[in-house]
Write a structure and sequence with these properties.
Helix content is 36%, strand content 19%.
């Protein structure tokens, strides 16, 4: 270290610098075989390495010293940081990289850092696979103010509000938190794959109020005091942060340490823990849920500059070639130097730099990295294609596949769903995180029935090729994450209070939600939150559109489900069954409040007919709605949401006689008003 750097470091210490520890290793093989050649933190997310998202967030928050701890592919991480903007003279922070091949957990990392005496002040502990737009500066300030009054506070856990079934919530690690609603002090913490949770009964007996939260997910972001690293050193059984939290809560009365939480409601944060989450977070970035962390605004040397167009189409500003007849439908990112052949169809996909996509290619839900060549008449669906892969003509890749670096496939071959391919024969994996590889068999020959006659690649099996299990679904789950069916099975369990009898309770089975139900729930949640928080209509429209693209919902389905969600809100907010007068009063206020939103979607005659169909279907199953349907139609007519011609056309074709009878007076009034040419007679 030069004398200049020493002086800078001493000056920072004197000023009580803001520090951050980035854990740059995953300690699992969820991204294998990709991570055998590149660390997870350098895998591209929308053509930008994951690590850049973390460093950018820390730099924006005013962090002055960042410690990156890694144990695999250390040289790649050092090279990336060395040639990044964070190593320039204008960088707002100093970055140091700590490497150790002996660590196998976050606990080992913090013990190593503590042994080197690197922590001098409160610090941010974060994993290198987090993508967020959290206001860390504000969270750090709140943590420091709390520590001034609560000396026992050693950690503030940053949690993100995400309802169950939300796509940004990883289904493999559910979280239940019991907290003091006044102070946000965590009283009980339990996480894991098992949906059976137990909360100690004494927590309720000792307090008048306890907040039980199942709507939070752990972002693996914490604001810590220097004591945290020391406690990891003193307790070698603390391997993960969950171990640490559990140990602190158990020994809280003895040790006098406490942990608090910060629940982020209106900002974004998610971890890229498996390929399912990789897909979900990618969709959220493209859909601008992470704003301002979006391709056209995010400051990254790795990805360059993009232009943002309608339907979430992002094109790099340099050397992108789109041939005649090529079609970018929606949610598409095209990197620098990439060319797209004629009559090629692309939807919900990311394509990296310097790729060559042939003619008549179909790409849906795919993540294609740099320097990939795709021949003519190929079909790629929901797959990850790594750097320097070549697909010859007529190659079809089914959903759930991963094609690692430099694999060659084809021609005229189909890669079956869930297949994982790598360019070299796989070696035995030790199961302890990102593997450097290098022990493959030199004389292995590719199976041409899998990769094609001109192919070069080998099948990778999670857990090792000598595994006795040949269950492809289990192998795929290890990489892509828990499936919806398995999540539904776990939901059969029931949480309980310890000491309370719950064996007699048998919860009903419920099937996994399909995309339309998930969309409906998300829109209903957005509308309720929009009303409570007085969110602008433009923002609500953006949220509804993003949900549409996320769940691949048609405009017809959107119109109908949106209207049903609006009709449902008064019933959800009521404590009892609403009388007709109460219902129409609430609907009148609600429709007026949401008028810009409704007018945006119900413009054309077809969309207005969708609205009326939704009203009809909802009324058939809601007795209280039937009594006020005519007045609801009158409200929508007066506010120019529904036109006279469409209403009469719908009523003429309506098959429900009772409903037609209810609406008959309003229809008669409409017809008479038209005949009297401009009559302003009121309909009562």
């Amino acid at each position: 270290m030069t004398s200049k750097n020493k002086r800078q470091k001493e000056t920072l210490k004197q000023e009580d610098v803001l520090q951050a520890v980035v854990i740059a290793d995953s300690f699992d093989v969820r991204f294998a075989p990709l991570t055998q050649e590149r660390p997870r933190m350098l895998l591209p997310m929308i053509n930008t390495p994951l690590l850049d998202y973390v460093l950018n967030q820390l730099g924006t928050a005013g962090i002055q010293e960042i410690i990156i701890f890694c144990c695999c592919h250390v040289d790649q991480i050092k090279q990336h940081v060395k040639y990044s903007k964070w190593s320039s003279s204008s960088s707002p922070c100093q970055i140091s990289i700590i490497a150790s091949e002996d660590v196998m957990s976050i606990g080992d990392c913090l013990r190593d850092i503590d042994a080197k005496d690197l922590i001098t002040s409160d610090f941010v502990l974060i994993t290198g696979d987090v993508v967020s737009n959290l206001d860390l500066a504000t969270i750090i300030t709140k943590h420091k103010k709390r520590r001034e009054t609560e000396k026992s506070c050693i950690m503030t856990m940053v949690l993100k509000r995400a309802l169950p079934q939300h796509r940004s919530r990883c289904t493999e690690s559910d979280l239940v938190i019991a907290a003091d609603p006044q102070t946000d002090r965590i009283l009980h913490h339990q996480s894991g794959k098992d949906a059976h949770f137990e909360v100690p009964l004494h927590l309720f007996l000792e307090r008048s109020q306890v907040a039980l939260r199942y709507d939070l997910m752990d972002c693996q972001v914490s604001i810590c005091s220097p004591t945290v690293a020391q406690l990891f050193t003193d307790n070698f059984d603390y391997q993960t942060r969950d171990d640490f939290v559990r140990g602190i809560l158990i020994n809280e009365e003895i040790m006098g340490n406490s942990i608090y939480m910060y629940a982020a409601d209106d900002l974004y944060a998610a971890r890229v823990t498996n390929l399912t989450m990789y897909e979900s977070v990618s969709k959220d970035i493209i859909g601008r849920w992470t704003y301002p962390v979006v391709p056209d605004l995010f400051d990254s040397q790795s990805s360059g500059t993009y232009t943002y167009g309608r339907h979430n189409i992002y094109l790099h500003q340099e050397n992108v070639t789109l041939a005649r007849g090529s079609k970018l439908v929606e949610n598409v990112v095209i990197g620098e130097g990439t060319s797209i052949g004629k009559d090629t169809f692309i939807r919900d996909s990311v394509i990296g730099r310097n790729c060559i996509i042939g003619e008549d290619v179909t790409i849906e839900g795919a993540y294609i990295w740099d320097n990939v060549v795709v021949g003519d008449w190929c079909n790629i669906r929901r797959a990850v294609i790594a750097d320097d892969v070549t697909l010859k003509d007529h190659v079809s890749i089914e959903p759930g596949c991963v094609v690692s670096f430099r694999v060659v496939l084809g021609p005229s071959v189909t890669i079956h769903g869930g297949t994982l391919l790598m360019s070299q024969p796989p070696d035995k994996d030790d199961g302890f995180g990102d593997d450097d590889g290098g022990n493959s068999a030199p004389d292995a020959v590719p199976d041409i029935t899998v990769v094609g006659v001109d192919g070069q690649g080998f099948v990778y099996t999670p857990g090792g090729n000598d595994s006795e299990s040949d269950d492809d679904e289990i192998a795929q789950q290890l990489v892509w994450g828990q499936t919806a069916d398995e999540e539904s099975e776990n939901d059969d369990d029931i949480s309980s209070l310890s000491g309370a009898e719950s064996d007699d309770i048998t919860p009903p089975e419920s099937p996994p939600l399909d995309d339309t139900k998930l969309f409906y729930n998300e829109v209903l949640d957005s509308l309720q939150r929009g009303i409570e928080e007085n969110v602008k209509s433009d923002n609500l429209i953006l949220e509804v559109n993003s949900s549409k693209y996320a769940y691949n919902i048609t405009m017809k389905e959107l119109n109908q489900l949106l209207m049903k969600a609006v009709l449902e809100i008064p019933h959800l907010r009521a404590d009892a069954v609403l009388e007709p007068a109460q219902l129409i009063a609430q609907l009148s206020a609600l429709l007026t409040r949401l008028l810009p939103l409704l007018s945006n979607y119900f413009k054309s005659p077809d969309s207005q007919l969708d609205c009326l169909t939704a009203l009809e279907e909802y009324t058939v199953h809601c007795e209280s709605m039937a009594t006020v349907l005519a007045k609801v139609l009158h409200l929508l007519y007066n506010q120019d949401v529904l036109s006279e011609a469409v209403i009469i056309s719908w009523w003429t074709k309506c098959q429900h006689k009772a409903l037609k009878t209810q609406v008959q007076p309003f229809i008669t009034w409409l017809q008479e008003a038209e005949e009297e040419s401009g009559s302003e007679e009121e309909f009562d």
